[in-house]
């Protein structure tokens, strides 16, 4: 069978193939829509043990289970941020099953604030055999069984992050294709488990590439991801996309304006992301807190796209509260204030109503 016949056969299989599993797409769509509800966005608090160690090292806090619990508990107990601005929280497995200092399961604190608990299910980006300098995200083995337990524990959405690096000769087609395929298999398994998959293909900001190169790679990766999602029969109404913005590499000598980042990101997504997707929730990727907010705000001011556009930030929501907390009980209120401020700023940005003056006033 040649390539064209194979493509035709696949197309037919996709269009006439129907799922035999009892997936409830309307319920998946309801969760996806809630995650991108107006004025709300997602808190990415799913740092794996190695990543949270880096964050704690930076503020002089020992990486113990108790410290991780105390830190995350202070975020989930921050009503000012959680009630009005946060739609869902992505958790590392430990946190989904963790009990707070007073005996309340942390997942109950999130639910009590009206937010949806989610779970990071990938096992990390590992060096990809045969592809020096590139990674493939792993974690598909046993995923269905893990998701059943996570659902019983309260998780209603999941996250899988594929990592794509831009460098000389990178990314390669082999790595883009393999990562997109893994994302699509993950998404199909999640939907079968009645869990909304957040599909996160992250193109890193590391390197000296300019914004045009990021634009080109972002389009290529998103096209490939959506082709794979279609082949794996993932229902787009029941996912949320978590992409990078189209932005210069950190080492690039010329910086793009906020307006250019917003325009290029919108046009790259319009060219590659079907309108059936309910929402886009961006990662911050190492942008400063204020940059991440300004870019989201600029996109929502421009408007004219078919999806909600909001945030799913890790660092851009948490850097300020982590610094304010620094592991001290007496700093909990200050840390919650810092978290509430960033959550409010990003909530306004998701509506295109942020103003830089609000940062200086705070
Ligand atoms: C919060 O960090 C998440 C987990 O990272 P590791 O697997 O490296 O521990 C990460 O996937 C995060 O959700 C995304 O990168 C978005 O976070 P940022 O900080 O880029 O907004």
Rounded mean pLDDT score: 94
What is the rounded distance between the termini?
Answer: 64 Å
What does the radius of gyration come to?
Answer: 20 Å
Query: What percentage of residues falls in helices of 4 or more residues?
Result: 40-55%
**N-to-C order of helices and strands:** HHEHHHEHHEEEHEHEHEHEHEHHH
Q: Which ions and ligands are bound to the chains?
A: 2-O-methyl-1,6-di-O-phosphono-D-mannitol
Helix-strand category: alpha/beta
Low-confidence stretches: 1-18
Summarize the structure in short:
This protein is an alpha/beta fold. Helices cover 50% and strands 14% of the residues.
Could you explain how this protein is built, in words?
The protein has 362 residues and is α/β, with parallel strands linked by helices. It has a single domain, classed as TIM Barrel (Alpha-Beta Barrel). 50% of the residues lie in helices and 14% in strands. Helix 10 links the parallel strand 7 and strand 8 (240-241). Helix 9 (173-192) packs across helix 10, helix 11 (258-272) packs across helix 12 and helix 12 (289-302) packs antiparallel against helix 13 (315-325). The protein is globular, with a radius of gyration of 20 Å. The model is unreliable at 1-18 (pLDDT under 50). The structure holds 2-O-methyl-1,6-di-O-phosphono-D-mannitol. 2-O-methyl-1,6-di-O-phosphono-D-mannitol binds at residues 44, 46-48, 51, 90, 124, 161, 202, 283-285, 313-316.
Characteristics:
two-stranded antiparallel ribbon; eight-stranded parallel beta sheet; 362 residues; alpha/beta; binds 2-O-methyl-1,6-di-O-phosphono-D-mannitol; TIM Barrel
